[in-house]
User: Fold Aste57867_1047 protein from Aphanomyces stellatus.
Amino acid sequence: MSATYMSYDPLPLFETCMSSTVIQDLQDWMYMINRPNAPSNDLPLNIDLFDSLLPRPSPPASPCCTDIDSTTSESDVESTLSRRSTCHQEGCFRQARFHGACKQHGGVNPCHVSGCKRQARRGNLCVSHGGAKCCKVQSCGNAAQSQGLCKAHGGGARCTVDGCDKSSQGGGLCRAHGGGKRCSHEGCLKGVQRGNKCATHGGIRFCSVADCGRPDRGGGLCESHRRENECSVHMCKRLSHAMGKCKLHLRQQTRV
Assistant:
């Protein structure tokens, strides 16, 4: 196939401000249209070659966990179930607290005092047997109410009467200002001591030991039986409360 060429007369030049630019553009255009239409020897474009150059798509993520994740998740589930295990008592669906039982069915760490089934607090003792936090006054064995102090040393609620710093016994008042229970004897406004009566109307209280007719000297015992039940700590004259010790020494052994 022969190439075909076309000839043109040269364009005249015009003396204008834009003549050089226009002539240059026309010459470029004429060169493009007069190029020989020679057949191309290029190979055909291989589309498949582009596919091989493209990155392969990553396989979809598996919904299954790895062995490590599976082990971790199973242990987490087991620990969660153990924490949320229910009471072993038949028909009870409360949460187990101690030895597989809820509080209602004995699932508490019991007090170490023989025969006591209350929950242990401090030093493996219940509150009644010295497991409560002790008053921070060194010689006091009473349970702390607030700010580390017992009622006698300023802890707990106080009387609301101006100028009175005594402990509130009820209704925001101390005994002197009407707080606490009153004697049930008609016309008596004294505070209750025992049996809903004051010390005056309560009568004589006797020793609680069988066949003992001596008067009570404190703690339900006469003077003779008090000596038999004194605290085991040397020189302590207080009554033994549990495990051979008075409340003071029971609480002091758990003092922090």
